[in-house]
């Protein structure tokens, strides 16, 4: 065995290195490409040998021959006289047209090589848009989440409302139910929940017990008319059932919310459907929860007793400033009358901001507001979250605001009290009782 044969036997076929030439012209190793094999002498290169190749096992057919003993394959020579075309060749055994070299198979979006003509751009499949059914499923899922959150928030608020038992109980001679919905809104001077430092800061004093600081009657009509908000001056001279002539706020001091409701129904003839009360601490908490409230201060106020000093003009008041603003008696020829006007102005501004989308749709303001409101207010035992929602919507509907017509003073409860103008006061309350708009002459007079 020659040196070349030993080297060829030790080499692995197809390792990519060139094989040493054979001097005998015999078959090459199976690792050599078939198109590089020379034709064997004395044989027709275009036809495979008829006998078994050298080295084949006896009795083995062509199928069992080793691959390194396969016959060589060569291209047939072109006919004489026809020169091969430049760049011409055969692809998969067939002659191809064109002069450019054959590109290997690969991705269609690969850039062409040097000297290659650019191929046609690969068409891109259009982006698949979500179907209508998919969009409906997404919308339904969002609506379901919002519905669950709303229902959960409703029950949560409803469970936090503190109710007063018996405040709206029937009594002999009570006014029959009247059309529309009537709320008695009371602001008390209760210091409950305020520390000593907070009392000094808010200038609420050390007064013990609990009295009404403001009272309003809100009428929500059954029709499309605007709601009506009527201030009831706390120093109004009225007849308290079983207690004689006294100031209106004395009814609360003597018999609490229950006697106050009965007194208001007796002197107005209007059936009260809901009762809501808020103290000083809750008042401040609600205003701070909504980030303050904008008020147009019509005259500069400097009242050390209320802890308040404000300039004239539109400005945002925080909780302590707002409390002083509705409590002060400074300003105006009739301090108590001006005070009720400020209370109506402030209440409307608070409810409008609280009911705005910037507060309700923002969980960082709506949740603290709900917590502050439910901690601050006290309602009758039959009032729930839906009733509170209707109250907020009514207050945000720009209600007609007025005060009970009055004229002069009288002595009641050991002091000077506000005397109502009986004729005009009856016209005002008759309109509410019959679910009618308040006559314009009453509003103009006030």
Please characterize this protein's 3D structure.
The N and C termini lie far apart (132 Å). The chain has a 7-stranded mixed beta sheet, with helices on both faces. It has a two-stranded antiparallel sheet with strand order 1-2. The longest helix has 29 residues, at 132-160. The protein has 12 helices and 17 strands. Strand 5 and strand 6 form a beta hairpin. The model is unreliable at 58-70 (pLDDT under 50). With 446 residues, it is an alpha+beta fold.
Please summarize what this structure is.
The protein contains twelve helices and 17 strands. The protein has helices spanning 3-10, 132-160, 196-202, 248-268, 280-289, 319-327, 335-354, 357-360, 363-376, 385-395, 422-433, 440-445, and strands at residues 90-91, 94-95, 162-164, 181-188, 212-220, 228-231, 237-240, 244-247, 274-278, 293-297, 301-303, 308-310, 313-317, 377-380, 400-403, 406-412, 415-420.
């Amino acid at each position: 065995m020659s040196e070349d044969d030993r080297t060829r036997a030790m080499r692995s076929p197809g390792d990519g290195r060139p094989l040493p030439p054979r001097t005998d012209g015999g078959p090459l190793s199976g690792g050599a490409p078939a198109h590089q094999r020379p034709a064997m002498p004395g044989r027709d290169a275009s036809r495979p040998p008829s006998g078994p190749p050298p080295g084949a096992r006896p009795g083995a057919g062509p199928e069992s021959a080793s691959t390194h003993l396969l016959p060589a394959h060569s291209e047939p020579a072109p006919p004489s006289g026809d020169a091969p075309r430049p760049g011409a060749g055969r692809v998969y055994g067939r002659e191809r047209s064109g002069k450019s070299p054959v590109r290997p198979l690969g991705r269609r979006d690969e850039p062409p090589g040097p000297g290659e003509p650019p191929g046609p751009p690969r068409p891109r499949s259009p982006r698949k848009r979500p179907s209508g059914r998919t969009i409906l499923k997404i919308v339904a899922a969002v609506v379901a989440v919002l519905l669950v959150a709303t229902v959960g928030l409703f029950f949560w608020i409803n469970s936090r409302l503190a109710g007063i038992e018996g405040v709206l109980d029937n009594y002999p001679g009570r006014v029959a139910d009247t059309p529309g919905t009537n709320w008695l809104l009371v602001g008390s001077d209760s210091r409950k929940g305020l520390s000593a430092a907070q009392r000094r800061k808010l200038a609420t004093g050390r007064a013990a017990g609990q009295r009404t600081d403001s009272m309003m009657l809100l009428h929500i009509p059954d029709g499309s008319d605007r709601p009506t908000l009527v201030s009831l001056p706390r120093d109004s001279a009225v007849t308290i059932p079983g207690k004689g002539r006294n100031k209106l706020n004395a009814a609360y001091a003597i018999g609490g919310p229950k006697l106050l409701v009965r007194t208001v129904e007796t002197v107005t003839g209007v059936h009260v459907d809901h009762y809501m009360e808020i103290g000083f601490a809750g008042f401040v908490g609600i205003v701070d929860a909504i980030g303050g409230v904008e008020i147009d201060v019509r005259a500069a106020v400097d009242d050390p007793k209320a802890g308040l000093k404000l300039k004239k003009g539109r400005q945002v008041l925080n909780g302590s400033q707002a409390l002083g603003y509705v409590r002060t008696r400074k300003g105006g020829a009739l301090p108590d009358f001006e005070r009720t006007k400020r209370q109506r102005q402030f209440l409307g501004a608070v409810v409008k901001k609280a009911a705005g989308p910037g507060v309700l749709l923002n969980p960082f303001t709506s949740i603290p507001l709900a917590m502050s409101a439910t901690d601050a207010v006290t309602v009758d035992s039959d009032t729930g979250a839906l009733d509170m929602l209707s109250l907020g919507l009514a207050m945000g509907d720009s209600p007609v605001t007025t005060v009970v017509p009055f004229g002069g003073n009288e002595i009641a409860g050991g002091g000077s009290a506000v005397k109502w103008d009986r004729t005009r006061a009856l016209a005002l309350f008759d309109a509410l009782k019959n679910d009618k708009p308040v006559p314009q002459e009453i509003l103009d007079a006030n």
